[in-house]
TrEMBL record:
Binding residues for heme b: H384
Alphabetic keyword roster: Heme, Iron, Metal-binding, Signal
Superkingdom classification of source: Eukaryota
UniProt cross-references to Pfam families, sorted A to Z: IDO
Source organism: Botryobasidium botryosum (strain FD-172 SS1)
SUPFAM superfamilies listed in its UniProt record: Indolic compounds 2,3-dioxygenase-like
This protein's name: Indoleamine 2,3-dioxygenase
Assigned protein family: Belongs to the indoleamine 2,3-dioxygenase family.
GO MF annotation list: heme binding; indoleamine 2,3-dioxygenase activity; metal ion binding
Length: 459
């Protein structure tokens, strides 16, 4: 019996059906809109006050004199939402660009609201209904989690520097920033550059899916070309990822930018969840912070190559004890933080009748090109582990730099033998280093890397 993948595909694979553009990929081809209509000025004006060089807000966990000087203006900014009306959103529901802008604005406002509040770790953070209800409503229409996502910070956050020129890494800026630093811009830019460089891989995958048949020499040569193109893209993604080190300072990332990203679960399972006032079942919402782990491009590469992060398929070498302790559901869960149409894209891709790993297994000439792709992705994850270690793990262990009052205060307290910080109440015991989604970081990243290695085929 001929394998199923040899037959003419029953389905056309069309990127455009999934709102994936042939030149900009998962980034919208039309630049995201920059303001909602007048009826939503309540939100837009609040964002204006938070999103500028002289923002009225400061990080609640920052006890520097400059931050303390903004405590009153921060409190006033937040108080405004406690008495603000719950604006109806139905006028946005038929326009995906307006819905995305609303999600972007509201999700940034929620993070500004939560993280400008001085922390009280034993008490739940309450998000007022004026923010919580419209955010949950527009999120349900978009089919995306009601929190700041990779889409809000990168995909739906760009603007063209010169609107007469096409989108490119040198012709983009970002509309909303927590810190206004060049480091934050560079971090989003690195992610956007990866999305753009990934587009030829998406086109190659779509060409593969649409090949009339697979089996004859001509079609096998075409599959080998697809795999070579995808491997070249992944190698470039690794260089782009590493280039972030030149433009984004680890201490700025760790101490000034990343605290704004923290989601409801960032301090681990025991910390109280955020409460969305006016929302039923608020405790069942998906509320992890934004992560490039939500990049549909990276998931597309995994799905195309059949990387099994869930440890469901029999692969060798068997997962280590450490791999088994990691959160196997992380990558699957991150898909809920993508726009639903991109989730559908991944589902469609994963349901392919011609999984390229199976095809390569049946055709020895494809094993090397296939393994070269998987090796490139494994090398991306090795490089990513080093970046995450430099920006997160080492920063969490390093003595704080001068000018980092939060870290300095915590160290002083620790030296004096205190178990909890008297100001924030935070435990001073050494905690496992967690990702923005609350996962134990190195366990998770190594498990993702090792799942990639297990995808390699034997020669
Ligand atoms: C300074 C740069 C970066 C740092 C510090 C960093 C850090 C992290 C951390 C802490 C995680 C754990 C999951 C979580 O968010 O909770 C993670 C996951 C992830 N990140 Fe990054 N990241 C960086 C840049 C990027 C870029 C540019 C990409 C590519 C788009 C990327 C792709 C991923 C992916 C795909 C995951 C899921 C785990 C995996 O697939 O290995 N990261 N990252």
């Amino acid at each position: 019996v001929e394998p199923a993948h040899n037959h003419v595909p029953q389905r056309q694979f069309n990127l455009a059906d999934f709102d994936v553009d042939y030149t900009t990929g998962f980034l919208p081809a039309r630049p995201p809109i920059s303001r909602l209509s007048a009826e939503f000025e309540l939100w837009e004006q609040a964002l204006d006050k938070a999103n500028c060089q002289n923002s009225v807000l400061s990080l609640g966990e920052d006890y520097s004199p400059e931050a303390l000087a903004k405590r009153d203006s921060s409190a006033q900014w937040r108080a405004h939402f406690q008495s603000a009306p719950v604006l109806p959103t139905s006028s946005l529901h038929n326009d995906v660009e307006l819905l995305r802008r609303a999600h972007h604005v509201l999700a940034f406002l929620v993070h500004f609201y939560v993280h400008s509040t001085p922390p009280t770790p034993t008490q739940a953070v309450h998000i007022p209904a004026s923010l919580a209800v419209p955010l949950v409503t527009v999120s349900r229409v978009l089919g995306i989690a009601p929190i700041l996502t990779f889409a809000d910070t990168v995909l739906w956050n760009y603007a063209l520097i010169d609107p007469t020129q096409p989108l490119s890494p040198t012709n983009m800026r970002f509309q909303t920033l927590f810190t206004g630093t060049q480091d934050e811009t560079s971090f989003y830019l690195c992610c956007a550059q990866i999305e753009l460089r990934g587009v030829p891989a998406l086109r190659a995958i779509s060409n593969y899916e649409n090949l009339a048949s697979i089996g004859d020499n001509d079609s096998l040569a075409k599959v080998a070309c697809v795999l070579e193109d995808v491997a070249a893209v992944i190698n470039d993604l690794t260089s782009t990822l590493q280039s972030v080190r030149c433009t984004c300072e680890p201490s700025v990332f760790y101490h000034a930018i990343r605290p704004w990203f923290r989601g409801s679960d960032a301090s681990g399972p025991e910390s109280p969840n955020w409460v969305f006032e006016g929302v039923e079942d608020s405790d069942r919402l998906d509320l992890s912070g934004p992560s490039a782990g939500q990049s549909s491009l990276m998931h597309s590469l995994d799905v195309f190559l059949d990387v099994d992060h869930s440890l469901e398929k029999p692969r060798l070498p068997a997962p280590s004890e450490q791999n088994q302790r990691a959160d196997h559901k992380f990558m699957k869960r991150m898909q809920r933080y993508m726009p639903s149409i991109h989730q559908n894209f991944l589902q469609f891709l994963s349901a392919t009748p011609r999984c390229v790993r199976n095809v390569a297994r049946c055709h020895p000439s494809l094993i090397d090109p296939y393994n070269a792709c998987v090796t490139a992705l494994k090398q991306f994850r090795d490089a990513h582990l080093r970046v995450a270690c430099l920006y997160v793990v080492s920063m969490s262990r390093a003595a704080p730099k001068p000018g980092c009052p939060v870290g300095a205060m915590m160290l002083k307290m620790q030296a004096e033998g205190a178990l909890t910080c008297p100001v924030t109440g935070e435990s001073l015991k050494r905690q496992p280093v967690r990702g923005t989604g609350g996962n134990e970081l190195s366990l998770l990243l190594k498990a993702c890397r090792d799942a990639t290695t297990r995808t390699l085929l034997d020669r």
